Amino acid sequence: MKIERLRHLRGPNVYLSRPAVVARLRLGELTGVETSDVTGFAERLLRVLPGLAEHHCAAGAPGGFVSRLRGGTYFGHVSEHVCLELSQLIGRDVSFGRTVSAGEPGRYDLIIECPVDESPDSRLPRDLLQAAVDLVLSVIAGRTEKPVLDDLAARAEREAAGPSTRSIIAAARRRGIPVERYDDLSLLRLGWGNRRRLAWAAMTDRTSGVGIDIAGDKQVTRRLLTEAGVPMPTGGAARTVPDALAWLDRLGGPVVVKPRQGHQGRHVALQLSTPEQVERAFRAAGADVIVERQLAGRDYRVLVVAGEVVAAAERIAAHVVGDGRGTVGELVERVNADPRRGPGHSRVLTRVTLEPALLDRQGLTERSVPAAGQRVWLADTGNLSTGGTSLDVTDDVHPEVARLCLRVTALLGLDIAGIDLRLPGIGEPLPPVEIGADVTAGVIEVNAVPGLRMHLAPARGRARDVGDAIVRAMFPAGSDGRIPAVAITGTNGKTTVARMTAHLLADTGLRVGLTTTDDVRIGGRVVFRADATGPRSAQMVLGDPGVQAAVLETARGGLLNRGLGYDWTDVGVLTNITADHLGQDGLATIEDLAHVKALVAERVRDGGTLVLNADDPWVRTLVSRPRVRADRKRVVWFGLDAGQPVVVEHLARGGTAYLLEDGWVLQATGARRTSLLRVAEIPGAYGGAAPHVVANTLAAMAAARALGASQDAVARRVAEFDPAVDNAGRGTLFRLGDVSVFVDYGHNPAALAATLRTLHRLWGADRCVAALTLPGDRRDDLIAACAQVVADAVTRVVLYDDEEPRGRPPGEVPALVEREMRARRPKLFSVRAEGCRAAVTEALRLARPGDVVLVVYEKLAPVLALLSELGAVVAAEAPRALPGRAPSAVRSPGRSLMGNERVPIPGYHG
Questions:
Q1: Which pTM does this prediction carry?
Q2: Do 256 and 119 sit in the same domain of this protein?
Q3: What is the β-pairing status of strands 634-639 and 604-613?
Q4: How many other C-beta atoms lie within 10 A of the C-beta of residue 326?
Q5: Among residues 423, 488, 470, which one has the least CA distance to residue 179?
Q6: In this model, does residue 409 exceed pLDDT 80?
Q7: What does this gene product do (predicted)?
Q8: How confident is the model over 462-478, as pLDDT tens digits?
């Protein structure tokens, strides 16, 4: 068995609503072999992993997998369950798995759930799958050794979010706030666009940098608070041993020595009374320290968030209690065996360590046996990071103590702070500060990025949901941090609908982020050039703080290979579903393609809007899919045939549709009809000769209206849409002398047929020349179907290979297209050319005055560059040609005819 490849689906996907990995597994010699064919396999596997007995599998109850195992199942399925069990054993809580055929014997796709906060770049899923495969092969070979998972468990713990970060993530998700964790850091992005916020553990993007610096310098904190009358222990800074000893002489013992800029209780020494102790503590703390009087009393931490005391805890320093039998070392081992304890901050408690100097102060060593009930201190401070524990005392905080903590937080300018106090009891008021009198209780430290663990899981008392308090402060008044968002998918028209929707929404005053096949745009400006239809591009838009609405073109490739880049949208648009990309990524039929595209409809929020093409039979089926839950959404149909039964029934129930009737685009709601604009006013529709452009316009209008655009604004903005600028390369018409050039991106039979029908309506069936390339990653039958469409519609064709033949040898696609065209139309004139430039040049040479040259491209820039060199200009209209006459170019504002001033071609910056 071998893992051939693995892809990480970072968001909702066709398998489940959570992240997952999909691994392609080749069984090799185990193809066709089942577990029942290997003697003793089931029993050996269960000895190695007894937890498999609890796996449900398809039975829906514990033991279901064992029944399959003993009855006979294939080894891809076994590897899936073993991977899930190994994940559980290392503390990675996942439970969903599925194994499906990859389309040929012996190859399977294993789909394994991932923790929602695991980095998409983590290698843990791959290594766990490899460990699962290795274990299965080992058991087949007759071995029963338990797997060694220490390294994987340590990595899983390192990469997992800590308790503080987890609490914020959980609180955000309960509120429906989108949350993304960056890699394996504690950095979180909550919300989208201009409503997004950043948090790093208990620090937010509104936390004052000045406040952090003040709290990070204990001497500055002391001075600022002392001058404000806040009770703090007497003391000060020392940078030399004599300075530190001078403070000891002045204060008397006991004193505390701590690093001036330390944190988490590291190198803090208490109960120091002799010069030797102070000198030793000074050197351990790094020679820049604070020496202050040690206050009597108990150690407390009060958490303040946005002007509110949200939690308080009493902190108990790490210790063990003797039983009269065990040594100090043995007692420490028992404490550290608590599964809640781990290294660092990954768990709610930290493992304790032995400090020989501290034991020596108590007259003990690691081998000492404390008496029963004797408390042995293992740390001076109550910090959880040094192994301490906490007791919740939130309900006991005296109002005077709470007011003091709020005042301290405000004095430092912090939104979140942990105030450390030393008090006789937190339920008692503090005595007022008197000049010249020693402070006996008060503030001992301020933490700008306080740990939350002590409040989330106290050793005793009520747990406090402090993550929720932080989220409430960041998103007041119940805000979910979302911006209006629309996702657009389908086979054809996605890019046009996305661009037009963004254009229409811009009139609402919203700054729109847009992703399409060509680029990412923010506020109409290109910020990133690439095929931007996957989850990374969606996150680029949703994470931009300047974006107020998002329009996301969402293509098949991104859905299958990376999942969605969002959890929910307000609007989902399905343009059409036709044959394309079949034979790729396991898609064998249009039904498979519909299943993938349906994900966009499924992830429209309850109460959101589904914009669906009533003229497309596959799109019409989406409303009946259980996972789409159309009954919980508002369905809006669009289409060119107002008589479609689904539209008629929908309107009879009072629904809304965007339709074409009698040359008008209109909004229909129930029996009411509102005319929006004439078809003749739709740019790029050429007076209705391009009905697919009309359909795209209807979809965009429906989407924009669903997000709040007014009827008048939508109608006006459609008329202002400039296809040559706003939608370059999608049905763009140029004039070059007496020849027209029509540039389009159609790469499948339906797209090519729609374009060629438009050209026939405008120029006639015998006036079309084509310069054609088709992508090599399409299946032979789809390329053949494209060739047949072209053969029926053009009189002359020039075939060329794109720069990237996509997995086929150079010349293979043009040869296949030429063979299919000649089989369809033996007398068709066709030639081949080397590359785009040569093909377009040859097609123009073949064209007669009055002809139109269709250029089907893979990359737009070279086409625009060539046309610009040749002096082509954009033509705003292409009126229907009369027999034997060339269509005349129509002058329009901002455009010139041949012989006049040359107009740069939009999109070309060569």
A1: 0.87
A2: no
A3: parallel
A4: 15
A5: 470
A6: yes
A7: Catalyzes the ATP-dependent polymerization of arginine and aspartate to multi-L-arginyl-poly-L-aspartic acid (cyanophycin; a water-insoluble reserve polymer).
A8: 999 999 999 999 999 88
